[in-house]
Structure prediction request, 273 residues.
Amino acid sequence: MRQFLTVISFMLLTIGAFAGFSNLGIPQIEPAPPPVEEVIDLGSMNMEQFIALGDRIFNGKGTCTLCHNSLGRAPDLGQIGTNAQARLDDDRYAGDAADIEGYLSESLTNPSAYVVVGFGKAGSDDTESPMPSTSGGSIALSDPELAAVIAYLQDKGGLEVTVEIPTDVEVPEEEPAEVASGEPRAPFTTFQELADEFACEACHTIGEEAGDLGPNLSAIGASRDAEYIRRAILDPNADIAEGFDEGMMPDDMGEQIYAIELEIMVDFLSQLK
Prediction:
């Protein structure tokens, strides 16, 4: 009996210690409250405000800076004012734009119309761009948002801003209750919801979704275990995949994702054999 009680006591102490460590010793991943969706009132905007909107979209929702940055993974847009007309006049240009505004619009929605030399998909001889269309997929910019980004790029490049602020479209507004509450979003329950929210497939090939800017994850579970995948999500610069550069993937996922969502991602990717 004494031995039995000793075993039971040891088990209870072990369980208690494990529970205490799990709750207190392991940092809990809690995302920051989501940014409040701004209400876009196109009717009251002047051009300066419209350009500022494009700036916010370019550096935020559009995820443009994931590739257009100092790492050189995508063309430098700081010289767009100098380069746009030259690219439009290039014999390799395969689009339908008649002016720079049209070229910029096309570069956002049909980026393969002109691929800067050295920035095409591997094996495409610079005829196919790895960049997804920003009007669809997980980015899905609306027409007013696309127009704002074009205005921002024209202004950034020192060009005349020829874009007109749209006045004949309705832009969805966030529900007032959600804006006022400031409550954290509810956790997503499927990998696809998470992939859409965090635009994973804009960079990674996952099954039929073919991103070309990050490592192919279609069979990641065959070569990497769950621990590696978890670390790659939370600390993407800990192990850099061959052929890719440090700093390409955001390193703040731990601040944006719930612990349960992280495990959904890890479990799904681990099973891709």
Observations:
- Residues 171-181 have pLDDT under 50 and may be disordered.
